[in-house]
Amino acid sequence: MDVYGAWGAVLPDRSRGQLAVAGDDGRFAVLHRVDDGEWETIAEAYDEESAKRAADLIARLAAMPEHLRIGGDGILTGLDTDHPGVEWVVPTEVVADADPIVRLTGPGTDRLWVVPSTDGDVLGLLNPDGDPREIAEFVSAAAADAFIAMVDALLAISGSRGFTEASGG
Questions:
Q1: Do residues 2 and 20 make contact, with C-beta atoms less than 8 angstroms apart?
Q2: Exposed, middle or buried, 132 (CB in 10 Å: 0-12/13-18/19+)?
């Protein structure tokens, strides 16, 4: 098995969460487990390039001192809005400026978006500005919400100061 990235964090309920992006025998997945439980596939990446891009974006998010989080509590938040689900935005490099908009947009941004289709049946992981754009599909809303909780926890432990914009839901 090839592991493209792995992370751990304490979740809000004080359990220990782990997230990994891995590939084996032509299958690529985002994996998750809590405490010493079994690893579960929470999303299927479309191909190796998509899996590597997902791992790269998660690592970039976790490394930045500030981020913007758009959305509510879970993937099905804001289905009736123009920005459903949850998205994180970080600058491509750290910029020293008093204005948070300048710091967050820097010379460019990296974005990761957990988004439902308009009918809520397809739950995707998108790389809105990059190629490939569509990088994985979650196996369920609960799996997507576990991913959201993990990314939020990773951003909290890295000391990232978050700016949020809640969308209706």
A1: no
A2: middle
